[in-house]
């Protein structure tokens, strides 16, 4: 079932988004060679607890951590670990914050030290693809318009779009209807309505778009060891255009 959020619910989700944004900005200052993603996970646990928030994905379908931390060829749902990040890695930190029942979901890919030119371009194109999709998140537009904008842009830049994982509705639980593919045809799919809250979260690969699952049954990685990047925002569909509850650049 697709729910349209009330003003009060959107305010709660924005408050959660504010905490999530502050957490991502703190993480950005931590990312460097030698840091472990488990250290980042533990930092997030403490950061949220100090602000009266909780990591919503911890325990979700048995997921054991506060964040997902996906390195290089890992597409999504990478487990935090004690392995140190190396110069030239890229790492995606994805988290869902619950503050008093309001949810916010955002992933961000970070460069570790000095990343090569292709890696930098992969990150730039993925972030730009996210905003191409957000431009289509308008009352009266269709879900296919979002995916088409992302796919045509990313593929024209020489990259591929992951098909196996999508954006989604959010609130009151992490994953709600509708699914938001990052590929597709314009003027197709469900029509967007005021009050809907969705995530757009393109995962873009430097090689093939296809994925394979690790033995932990959570972590997806590319089939060809090519790197993958992801950027994600939580977005409210409003009559005045898309409202990003996880916007890191409001100022």
TrEMBL record:
Keywords noted in UniProt: Aminopeptidase, Hydrolase, Metal-binding, Protease
Gene Ontology molecular function terms on file: initiator methionyl aminopeptidase activity; metal ion binding; metalloaminopeptidase activity
Cofactor note text: Binds 2 divalent metal cations per subunit. Has a high-affinity and a low affinity metal-binding site. The true nature of the physiological cofactor is under debate. The enzyme is active with cobalt, zinc, manganese or divalent iron ions. Most likely, methionine aminopeptidases function as mononuclear Fe(2+)-metalloproteases under physiological conditions, and the catalytically relevant metal-binding site has been assigned to the histidine-containing high-affinity site.
Coiled coil: none
EC class of the enzyme, as a word: hydrolase
Residues where substrate binds: 77, 175
EC number from the UniProt entry: 3.4.11.18
Cofactor(s) the protein needs: Co(2+); Zn(2+); Mn(2+); Fe(2+)
Binding site for a divalent metal cation 1: 94, 105, 232
Catalytic activity: Release of N-terminal amino acids, preferentially methionine, from peptides and arylamides
Domain Peptidase M24, chain residue ranges per copy: 11-239
Statement: the UniProt record of this protein carries the keyword Metal-binding: yes
Subunit structure: Monomer.
Family: Belongs to the peptidase M24A family. Methionine aminopeptidase type 1 subfamily.
Protein's recorded name: Methionine aminopeptidase
């Amino acid at each position: 079932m697709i729910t349209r959020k009330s003003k009060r619910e959107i305010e709660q989700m924005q408050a959660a988004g504010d905490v999530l944004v502050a957490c991502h900005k703190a993480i950005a200052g931590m990312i460097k060679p030698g840091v472990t993603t488990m250290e980042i996970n533990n930092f997030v646990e403490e950061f949220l607890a100090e602000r009266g928030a909780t990591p919503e994905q911890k325990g979700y379908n048995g997921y054991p951590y506060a964040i997902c931390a996906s390195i290089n060829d890992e597409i999504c749902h990478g487990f935090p670990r004690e392995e140190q990040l190396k110069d030239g890695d890229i790492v995606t930190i994805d988290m869902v914050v619950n503050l008093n029942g309001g949810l916010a979901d955002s992933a961000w890919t970070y460069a570790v030290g000095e990343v090569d030119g292709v890696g930098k371009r992969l990150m730039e194109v993925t972030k730009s693809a996210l905003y191409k999709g957000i431009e289509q998140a308008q009352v009266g537009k269709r879900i296919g318009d979002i995916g088409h904008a992302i796919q045509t842009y990313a593929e024209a830049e020489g990259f591929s779009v992951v098909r196996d994982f999508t954006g989604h509705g959010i609130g009151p639980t992490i994953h709600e209807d509708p699914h938001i593919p990052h590929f597709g045809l314009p003027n197709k799919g469900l029509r967007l309505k005021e009050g809907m809250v969705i995530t757009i979260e393109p995962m873009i690969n430097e090689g093939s778009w296809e994925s394979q699952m690790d033995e932990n049954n959570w972590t997806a990685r590319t089939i060809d060891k090519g790197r993958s990047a992801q950027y994600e925002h939580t977005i409210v569909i409003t009559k005045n255009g898309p409202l990003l509850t996880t916007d890191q650049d409001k100022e």
